[in-house]
Amino acid sequence: MTAAPADAVVGKKAIWGQLKLSDGASAFPVYKDLGVDVFQYQLAWNSTAPTRPASPTNPADPAYNWPSGIQTAINGASANGMTVALLVRQTPGWANGGLGQNVGPQSAQDYANFLTAARRKYPAVNRWMIWGETNRTDVWASGPVAYADLLDASWVALKADQAADPGDNTVVGGMTFTFGQTAPANWLAQLWRSNGARPRFDEYGHNPFARRCPDLAQGPNFLADGARDISDIDTLREDVKSAFGSYKPLWLSEFAVPSDRANRAFGWFVSRDEQADWLSRAFRIAGYVPGVSGFGWFDLQDENAPNGLTFGLLDTGLLPKPAYAVYKAASMTNTGLPGPCPVAPVPDPPTADPPRPGVVPPAADVRAPSFSLTVARRIKMARLLKGLKFKLTSDESGTAATEVRIDAATARRSRLVRKSRGPVVIASNSNAVPAGTVNLTARVRAAMKRKLKRQRSGTLSLSVIVTDAAGNSSKQSAVIRVRG
Hints:
By secondary structure, the chain is of the alpha/beta class. Helices cover 25% and strands 23% of the residues. The radius of gyration is 23 Å and the shape is globular.
């Protein structure tokens, strides 16, 4: 367990929540009473830019339809002594060939250009979260390499000095989730750009949702290999150092605990007093572990619906729950760790993504698509360089995200990268697929194709993730031997 230094920087109290309460009043005086430092909100790329802008870095381009809620958030936060952090995600169809909002753009520069326009539109925003819960395929289906390219392009766009914004933006990368199809520890290990370098960013973002009482003494991997919840953030800090060579501040964007009853996102709940206790413990852990730049709660008020979310600090009638007083009294200073948790059964994991402001709740379909791959297990290098062909047979339509990696030894021999700790991505793409059988081709990037021509052997790994319209996904893999 890591001891917190006495001179550790005190992090920010953050929150996700609505702009108005259920009675129509502004929520920002309530956030002020709670002592919120940072209000978090989402900017949806697809609805803001439904068509391709002619001048993408100009916020005045007529293609842009900027949501009124963000300026409302900035005004309300500024008037009540807090700042706004924006999470930007959801790809418009024109940027990825209509493959769905969870599939990355064909060019990372399109996203970077949108960020440039956004920072010019909202110069008061100085913390930018690059996508969200990227290790979940229903949110980001394009894999860690495409995300690393997107993140680095975002860093360049947000750090460039401009007249209205001197480039002092904080770029939050990673933005992982406790569980996900790729566990956070594994996601970090695979977070390499297509050129073999690590992406640049300022803070590592993570949503440490838990289904066990927060207690740093419990140790990592309690739930699943590589998972990282609030009781694992000391381990997550070391994961980041191992991946990037130095510690990065941790921006813990979202933490939530359902009370009273199960809801459409979590199939379990605790009592109101337990919710308050878990929140208190989480704050103390976040204040104790060095380098936590912020800790965020989701969200302010319970939803008044049969399956509505029950994460609120206020109930459906706007009355404070015990967690309200806990959040208000909490700080990010190091007050020591909480005592041991009482022994209790571990509930099931979350079943859906808690929708942020402006996000439509996930569809009721929860069945993952079933599919199979047909691919040659031995091919010649000359054939590979023309494109790796395979058949995909799926029982429902959706999006297929394909990634081809070549073993590290071959990558080093061919000088694809200067050094590599693992397999290197040589091809990646996304395709819309129908129900039934379809022929697909993964084409090797041109620069890598030239270098691979000199090689006579290698080992490929083909990975395909199929995601249906409801966001459910399945993964299949194959290993292929290459001979000269």
